[in-house]
Design brief:
Elements: H1 18-23, E1 29-31, E2 36-38, H2 42-50, H3 60-77
Antiparallel strand pairs: 1-2
Length: 102
């Protein structure tokens, strides 16, 4: 059964200070129930994808929802997301390392 994303675009962009983060709606987070990983622009989506496997205190169901939210946000911000499941994240680098091509 596919998880329905709860993410909705929000007008905040860039670095968020503590006050701004507190004012974000739950729908602006990858993990809305825990209010973890705000995804308010492309940079935050990429960061949340890179750190996905480092998020503590969440269940597999929470990760399913967070991944669905990240997929929706990635599509909105024009980010190519090759992974089809959160279980694929963290297994390989998301960006090419020029040092490895030498």
């Amino acid at each position: 059964m596919a998880v329905r994303p709860t993410w909705k675009p929000h007008t905040e962009h860039g670095d968020l200070n503590t006050k701004e983060r507190k004012e974000l709606p739950d729908s602006a987070y990858a993990f809305p129930n825990q209010r973890k990983e705000p995804i308010t622009d492309a940079s935050h989506v990429k960061n949340a994808l890179a750190r996905f496997d480092q998020v503590d205190g969440v269940s597999d169901a929470d990760r399913d929802l967070a991944f669905a939210n990240l997929q929706k946000a990635a599509q909105h911000y024009g980010i190519d997301l090759e992974e089809k499941s959160w279980r694929e994240l963290g297994k390989k680098p998301r960006t090419k390392n020029p040092a490895h091509s030498r």
